[in-house]
Amino acid sequence: RSVNLDISSSNNNKRLISCFGNNRQTDNPSEKEDNISVLCSKQFNSHQQIKQRRYSTMSGKKTFDDVVYPAIEARDTGMLKVSDLHTIYWEVSGVASGQSVVVLHGGPGGGSMPDYRRYFNPEKYNIAIFDQRGCGKSTPHAELKDNNTQNLVEDIEKLRKHLGIESWFVFGGSWGSTLSLMYAIHHPDRVKGLILRGIFLCRRSELLWFYQEGASHIFPDKFEPYREHIPVEERGDMIAAYYKRLTSEDKEVRLGAAKEWCLWEMSTSKLIPDVKYIDRADNLEFAAAFSRIECHYFVNHIFFEDGFILKKADTLKNIPMHIVQGRYDVVCPMTSAYELNKALPHSNLVVVPDAGHSMGEVGIAEELVKISDTIC
């Protein structure tokens, strides 16, 4: 049978998928195997580069590299002083004359990664990425003072002005979706559109689900070491108990808590566990910033009243919004994406049926790239 894939292409026809099957029926097993293998080409530059990829209709499997753009280097980087204490790392990639987009990483405290550049056509986008206060290459490392949502929102504005950008698309997942929405609420005139993934509205109910009880029923084996790190008498408020340790004067106490906090999240972020992803918890420099900053925001209710984003949703009604949500996201369950979509019916919600939380999962990455291709 012929195999047809419905893949949207850009107006200039630079990104194409063509697939070919064999219409002839056969009882020969080897010929059947040949018939179910299809060769696909992803062409985003007709005269410079063609990327080949092979799918099997038997397994239907693609890889992350199949659905995103090839790796590129940053064309410029720098450090921007945003306060007397904090300096943030920033970079731009793609083409300077392209459509501007800013990528907001998760956490808080997760830091940026080079793969974030790969969700956008580098010949069409001017891609800005930065490390939020206290994490990644930003300084001082793991610093909590003057580290709050209000300041992060204003850091985005300072970076926009520094780069000379009038307005831009905002791309973020998990905590990055929270910060994207917060930025759009406070600076709607600077946002051309929102591309969001794994919606996190940072409500108390969401925090209790993941850090106290809820996700623990789905991943009891992964939750156990996270829980057992805290004495029984303190387990009534796990976030507060971890915050006490993550802000301890004792370095060993801080690092021990950081690893367990980080390991719990890394272990639950993908539908199919990824050893390399989980091993990030062993990078104590990463874990120290990620866990400490994240817990700092959560114990302080992200420095806003509970439910702030939905209460201010009307502010976003004129901003185009695309939402990609993994059906089996345990870290940020689908209820938040569903409620945001209900509050803003103009938004487009795509539910990926075989994905969890991570933007590195193939189904989620593929949908995000489709959106970035469509709007530019």
Describe this protein's structure.
By secondary structure, this protein is an alpha/beta fold. 34% of the residues lie in helices and 19% in strands. Strand 9 (321-326), helix 12 (335-343) and strand 10 (348-352) form a beta-alpha-beta unit. Helix 3 crosses helix 4 (175-186), helix 7 (238-246) packs across helix 10 and helix 8 crosses helix 10 (284-299).
List strands and helices in order, with pairings.
Elements: H1 29-35, E1 37-45, E2 49-56, H2 64-67, E3 76-81, E4 87-94, E5 99-104, E6 125-130, H3 149-163, E7 168-174, H4 175-186, E8 191-199, H5 204-211, H6 220-228, H7 238-246, H8 251-268, H9 275-278, H10 284-299, H11 308-311, E9 321-326, H12 335-343, E10 348-352, H13 362-375
Parallel strand pairs: 5-6, 5-7, 7-8, 8-9, 9-10
Antiparallel strand pairs: 1-2, 3-4, 4-6
Helix pairs in contact: 3-4, 6-8, 7-10, 8-10
Shape: globular
Average pLDDT figure: 87
Low-confidence stretches: 1-59
Percent in helix: 25-40%
How do the SSEs run, as a string of H and E? HEEHEEEEHEHEHHHHHHHEHEH
Q: Helical element count?
A: 13
Largest sheet: 8 strands, mixed
The total beta strand count reads 10
The separation of the N and C termini measures 34 Å
Strand order of the largest sheet: 3-4-6-5-7-8-9-10
* Radius of gyration based on Cα positions: 22 Å
Structural class: alpha/beta
Beta-strand percentage?
Answer: 15-25%
